[in-house]
Design goal:
The protein is α/β, with parallel strands linked by helices. It has two domains: about 450 residues, Rossmann fold; about 100 residues, GMP Synthetase, Chain A, domain 3. The chain contains 18 helices and 28 strands. It has a nine-stranded mixed sheet. Strands 17, 18, 19, 21, 22 and 23 form a six-stranded antiparallel sheet that branches. A five-stranded parallel sheet has the order 4-3-5-6-7, with helices on both faces. The structure holds adenosine-5'-triphosphate (ATP) and magnesium ion (MG). The site of magnesium ion has 3 residues, from loops.
């Protein structure tokens, strides 16, 4: 089934989208000019992410504007204005000074979405140390590995996480000099080998002058999701803030009165670039919810907080779809103006569901830990072709490339031909290294391009379409099949909640398509349903592309950032070792 485009009309604009004229804005765009939207450190002393995010607003007319509203698990609320955030992040920078933590030293956080995480991140950047977030649900081994790889000097965590996951590892982490504990229920802590976060904060001054920061100074260390293998530590620099800021504006269409909710955890790059930095540099209000996904709770937050721009992920959207339209109808969601999604391909079904549920489609966008910010997007003013990830943002040159027989790279100029998605390096939030893995980094470049490892195609109007990760693409009887296309068709069936598709080795066809499917509530995994789904897929995809096998699972294995782990489905299918499962959802 091909999906009708969702056509936008100027008459529907509630505000004029920043990227209202793609051609014009793209052709006059330069990163130098984008940089001019930021202030830079006073006295021309460089560029620091935290200064742009906090200080320049706190010393200006946004001092009393709400920067962060934190909603605790039990519904308690804490508000932080830009002024207050400046005070607290200054204190944390002074704590680091007091502990002898220097420029370039790595400061890790292992915590849920608590206010201290946000304060630590920004205070660390003020001190020109490197912020590295860890997802709080990691078990001890992935924590040890990541602390070890980045040679963490400081770890900020909570008392209970420390006892459960870190204490036993201390002996194997010689570089880890300081562990700062946030007491459970804010009670002071007294744990050997650690210091109390609040005690140090109380002792520290609330004034801090950021020292000269070179735009190329390292700022962030982000581990990838580990969907395809061992996670890599991507290195980002302070200059990345130019991209965070401008993509927040152009791709997420931030306007000054917006209330923005990025549902991603800062343990992943989305939760930092857009959960912390971009909304702050743009001077808007961000909502942070401590709790995990719950459809009712989310609708309530959208309504009560009058969220206007919402950035979430396909897994969450599919779970909301699973709960149906009824819960949505109970809420007044008229404040919602712009809906966006990232992290995995967004099935056309889900894009259109946004339209039914919220009167607005979801706008898919594409990027990676390595790119540091959004690269390809369905922006607000754009007609949407459901299933497409959009067009390259201003300042971003994207191409489809393929390897030549001589081992080089050539650009695929014809539309609709699939190849690897490649980007011309040069945007500010481009990763500068994989930490301590020079060779792995070098392998990402060829012919003047950064090779993303994702396969895609471009249509004649310049829309990009995701096909699959290079590692996940299925080769069957001389065809190349992207799992996304097959999964999206299965999702169109009323019984299907989630689908993951792999290539299963086959002596004749090389590989055959096999689908794993989880069902919506109220459907039983019967042989009849299996047959019905096979027929449903065959009628739409043809015999070559449709799955030859369908297996029902109660749920699909996913990374903690919500990505379907097809490599795990495949390993399990073939009885092979599961590889690195440190990021597997528990
Ligand atoms: P690893 O590199 O360790 O295997 P990962 O690639 O999943 O993990 P991330 O950097 O978190 O780690 O995810 C980026 C990847 O997620 C992209 O390369 C792409 O495969 C997928 N992705 C992100 N957004 C989209 C999107 N809108 N459509 C399709 N795929 C997407
Ligand atoms: Mg990747």
């Amino acid at each position: 089934m091909s999906w009708e485009p969702i056509v936008k009309s100027r008459r529907d604009w509630e505000v004029v989208p920043h990227l209202h004229d793609y051609g014009d804005i793209r052709s006059s765009f330069s990163w130098e000019r984008a940089r001019q939207e930021l202030d830079g450190l006073p006295g021309g002393e460089g560029l620091n992410i935290a200064y742009e995010a906090v200080d320049r607003h706190a010393t200006g007319r946004l001092r009393d504007h709400l920067a962060l509203r934190w909603i605790g698990r039990n519904g308690e609320v804490q508000d932080y204005t830009y002024g207050r955030l400046q005070e607290l992040t200054n204190r944390f920078a002074n704590v680091l000074q007091h502990l002898g933590v220097a420029k370039g030293d790595r400061v890790y956080v292992l915590a849920g979405r608590i206010p201290e995480l946000y304060i630590t991140a920004l205070g660390t950047l003020k001190n020109r140390s490197v912020f590295c977030p860890l997802f709080s649900a990691f078990g001890p081994e992935p924590i040890r590995a990541r602390l070890g790889i980045g040679q963490a000097k400081v770890l900020v965590t909570t008392e209970s996480l420390y006892h459960r996951k870190v204490e036993a590892l201390r002996a194997s982490l010689p570089h880890l000099q300081e562990v700062l504990l946030v007491g459970d229920a804010h009670k002071p802590t007294n744990v050997p080998g650690t210091k109390d976060y609040y005690w140090l904060m109380a002792e520290a001054s609330d004034r801090f002058a950021i020292q000269p920061t070179d735009p190329e100074d390292m700022a962030l260390l982000h581990f990838t999701s580990g969907t395809t293998g061992t996670p890599k530590g991507a290195v980002h620099v302070h200059q990345a803030v130019v991209a965070h800021h401008i993509t927040g504006k152009l791709a997420l269409d931030f306007h000054k009165e917006d209330i923005f909710w990025c549902t991603a955890d800062p343990g992943w790059v989305t939760g930092t670039s857009y959960g912390i930095i971009a909304p702050l540099t743009n001077g808007i209000t961000s909502i942070v919810d401590e709790a995990e996904f719950d459809a009712d709770r989310w609708y309530r937050i959208l309504e009560e907080q009058r969220v206007s721009v919402w950035y979430t992920a396909p897994t969450a959207i599919r779970m909301m779809m699973k709960a149906g339209l009824e819960p949505v109808r109970k809420h007044d969601l008229r404040a919602l103006r712009f809906l966006a999604s990232v992290g995995e391909p967004l099935n056309p079904e889900a894009v259109v569901w946004g339209q039914q549920a919220f009167g607005r489609p979801f706008h898919d966008n594409w990027w990676q830990t390595e790119t540091g910010g959004i690269m390809v997007a369905n922006y607000a003013a754009m007609d949407i072709r459901p299933g497409s990830m959009g067009r390259p943002l201003p300042g971003i040159e994207a191409a489809i490339v393929r390897k030549t027989s001589e081992g080089g790279i050539e650009v695929v100029r014809e539309p609709e031909v699939q190849g690897e998605l490649a980007l011309r390096p040069g945007w500010p939030s481009m990763f500068r290294a994989y930490w301590n893995e020079a060779e792995r980094y070098q392998k990402c470049f060829a012919g003047g391009f950064y090779l993303t490892g994702d396969l895609a195609k471009r249509d004649k109007d310049g829309y990009f379409w995701f096909v699959g990760r290079a590692d996940d693409v299925i080769k069957t009887s001389g065809h190349l099949i992207g799992p996304f296309e097959v999964e999206s068709i299965l999702l169109e069936h009323k019984a299907v909640a989630e689908a993951g598709v792999i290539g299963k080795p086959d002596p004749v066809a090389m590989e055959v398509v096999k689908a794993f499917v989880s069902l919506k509530d109220g459907y039983e995994p019967t042989r009849e349903l299996q047959r019905e789904l096979m027929g449903f897929a065959r009628a739409r995809l043809g015999a070559v592309v449709a799955p030859k096998e369908i297996e029902f699972l109660p749920s699909l294995p996913k990374t903690r950032s919500g990505k379907i782990m097809r490599r795990l489905l495949k390993a399990r299918e073939l009885g092979l070792p599961e590889g690195d499962t440190s990021t597997l959802e528990g």
